[in-house]
């Protein structure tokens, strides 16, 4: 009886042991499936060497490309391929293309990047040489092409003082010239350069349509009006004004002239009023 019980317990123990071994074996199999297969040390070293070789190769290639680009650009800068062959001038009205090029010292054959790098200095030089140039913009438009955009001081007309002829500019500057312009004629300003410059600067404020309607300007001061200028219009009217304010007051001219039934005088010295020729002696 005792032997039978021992046999049964031994059998149950064997079964439990077998079950534990089976579970342990199954767990090991699952663990092995999760773990990647171990790489041989030699393979690891070989992989590291390949990665380093590829990385170093990429670095070398980048450096070669960079220095090659720099070298090519430097060769281009000093080669005939970087010389100006096409030069465009825009924005000029009174000035010719040749005058702009000469004053800016820019011409076909110069190295384009040398011009571009010195553009600010060249602009100052051009303005100093020719007061008709108010500003310049230099722009590279191609490997061998350049564009110069010029902003002019408008040429208003000419004045003859002490047998010298001056071009009168919109900002009040005077430039000695040999050519008489068919714009506004400035008369009776002999010995009064500052007065002429002030008058010109005032008229330079006017809209082009009004300015183009002026035939001539005469400086005719009186005791009562020491700064009087008389403006003769192309439409037949005459304007009396103060040389210090005429630029602002002439803005009313079109409306006043349109309201006049006959040609006459528009007085802008003090206030603004008009009257026909012969109806009032001023």
UniProtKB/TrEMBL annotation:
The domain of life for this entry's organism is: Bacteria
Name the residue ranges with Basic residues bias: 31-41
What exactly does this protein do?
Cell division protein that may be involved in stabilizing or promoting the assembly of the division complex.
Which keywords fit this entry according to its UniProt record?
A: Cell cycle, Cell division, Cell membrane, Membrane, Transmembrane, Transmembrane helix
Instruction: List the membrane topology term(s).
Output: Single-pass type II membrane protein
Give the region (Disordered) as residue ranges.
Answer: 19-41
Q: Which InterPro entries does this UniProt record tie to the protein?
A: Cell_div_FtsQ/DivIB_C (IPR005548), DivIB (IPR026580), FtsQ_DivIB (IPR050487), POTRA (IPR034746), POTRA_FtsQ_type (IPR013685)
Is the Cell cycle keyword given for this protein?
Answer: yes
Where is the protein found, in the record's own terms? Cell membrane; Membrane
The main place the protein resides is membrane
- The chain positions of domain POTRA read 82-153
Presence of keyword Transmembrane helix: yes
In Swiss-Prot or TrEMBL terms, this protein is called Cell division protein DivIB
Query: What parts of the sequence cross the membrane?
Result: 60-78
What is one Gene Ontology biological process annotated in the Swiss-Prot or TrEMBL record?
FtsZ-dependent cytokinesis
* Gene Ontology cellular-component terms listed: cell division site; plasma membrane
> What family, per the record?
Belongs to the FtsQ/DivIB family. DivIB subfamily.
């Amino acid at each position: 009886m005792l032997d039978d019980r021992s046999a049964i317990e031994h059998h149950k123990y064997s079964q439990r042991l077998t079950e534990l071994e089976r579970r342990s074996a199954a767990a090991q199999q699952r663990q092995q499936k999760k773990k990647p297969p171990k790489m041989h040390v030699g393979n690891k070293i070989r992989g590291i060497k390949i990665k380093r070789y590829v990385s170093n190769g990429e670095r070398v290639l980048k450096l070669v490309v960079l220095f090659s680009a720099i070298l090519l650009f430097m060769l281009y800068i000093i080669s005939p391929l970087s010389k100006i062959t096409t030069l465009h001038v825009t924005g000029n009205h009174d000035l010719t293309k040749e005058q702009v090029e000469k004053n800016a010292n820019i011409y076909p054959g110069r190295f384009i990047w040398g011009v571009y790098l010195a553009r600010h200095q060249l602009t100052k030089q051009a303005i100093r040489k020719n007061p008709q140039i108010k500003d310049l913009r230099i722009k590279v438009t191609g490997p061998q092409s350049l564009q110069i955009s010029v902003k002019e001081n408008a040429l208003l007309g000419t004045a003859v003082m002490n047998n010298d002829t001056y071009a009168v500019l919109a900002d009040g500057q005077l430039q000695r010239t040999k050519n008489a312009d068919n714009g506004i004629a400035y008369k009776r300003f002999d010995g009064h350069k500052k007065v002429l410059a002030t008058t010109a600067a005032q008229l330079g404020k006017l809209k082009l349509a009004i300015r183009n309607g002026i035939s001539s300007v005469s400086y005719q001061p009186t005791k009562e009006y020491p700064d009087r200028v008389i403006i003769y219009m192309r439409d037949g009217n005459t304007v009396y004004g103060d040389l210090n304010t005429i630029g602002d007051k002439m803005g009313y001219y079109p409306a006043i002239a349109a309201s006049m039934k006959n040609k006459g005088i528009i007085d802008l010295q003090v206030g603004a009023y008009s009257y026909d020729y012969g109806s009032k002696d001023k």
